[in-house]
Write a structure and sequence with these properties.
The complex is a heterodimer of chains A (113) and B (113). Chain A is mainly β and 113 residues long. Chain A has no helices and eleven strands. Chain B has 113 residues and is mainly β. Classes of the chains: A mainly beta (113), B mainly beta (113). The interface between A and B is medium-sized, with 22 and 23 residues.
């Protein structure tokens, strides 16, 4: 069974204090690993897709990386508007796994000014 | 604007009173899906549809029905809602070929008393 575990559950940083969020996964075959941002009361907003180990994607202050067992979301010099819950999800490559995203429980990030 | 819409956004109902949550997308996506989000359990897939008239169960389908008569719409039906279906519901869509990332609607917060 595909599984995703995110850590930490919650993270509080000062503005400008860089850090990383972790996503550990087990999947029989990986079609894609996704990062989403979710603000309170809103739907998940797509950030990145990573397909294979070694791949990296960047967007503004966010950088996502992927290994065979983990993905990291690095946040460089964060600002208060980066406060949100960050969700990691995997999609398997077999027929059953390809029909859904398996989500982690998210990391709730708070950036204090 | 490319988007997934859901209605209603908030709903309070009583046990056993049938209800429908509508979902519509304007991106001509073949694939649509419903998820529920609960504290401590994350996002879990309820049902999905690969295309018109093609639907299948996700991980937590009990107590729900869906239909896909048109490509753009994918309503979620609760024939006899129960309190354990109190949750935050999200509809999502994506293309079946090419980039696999899903795009989510704004959510429907359902309370069953």
């Amino acid at each position: 069974e595909d599984q995703v575990t995110q850590s930490p559950e919650a993270l509080r940083l000062q503005e400008g204090e860089s850090s990383s969020l972790n996503c550990s996964y087990t999947v029989s075959g990986l079609r894609g690993l996704f990062w989403y941002r979710q603000d309170p009361g809103k739907g998940p907003e797509f950030l990145f897709t990573l397909y294979s180990a070694g791949e990296e994607k960047e967007k503004e202050r966010l950088k996502a990386t992927l290994t065979k067992k983990e993905s990291f979301l690095h946040i460089t010099a964060p600002k208060p508007e980066d406060s949100a819950t960050y969700l990691c999800a995997v999609q398997g490559s077999d027929w059953v796994g390809a029909q859904k995203l398996v989500f982690g429980q998210g990391t709730r990030l708070t950036i204090n000014p | 604007e490319a988007q997934v819409t859901q209605n209603p956004r908030y709903l309070i109902t009583v046990t056993g009173k049938k209800l429908t949550v509508t979902c519509s997308q304007n991106m001509n996506h073949e694939y649509m899906s419903w998820y529920r989000q609960d504290p401590g359990l994350g996002l879990r897939q309820i049902y999905y549809s690969m295309n018109v008239e093609v639907t299948d169960k996700g991980d937590v389908p009990e107590g729900y029905k869906v239909s896909r008569k048109e490509k753009r719409n994918f309503p979620l039906i609760l024939e006899s809602p129960s309190p354990n279906q109190t949750s935050l519901y999200f509809c999502a869509s994506r293309r079946t070929g090419g980039m696999p990332e899903q795009y989510f609607g704004p959510g429907t917060r359902l309370t069953v008393t």
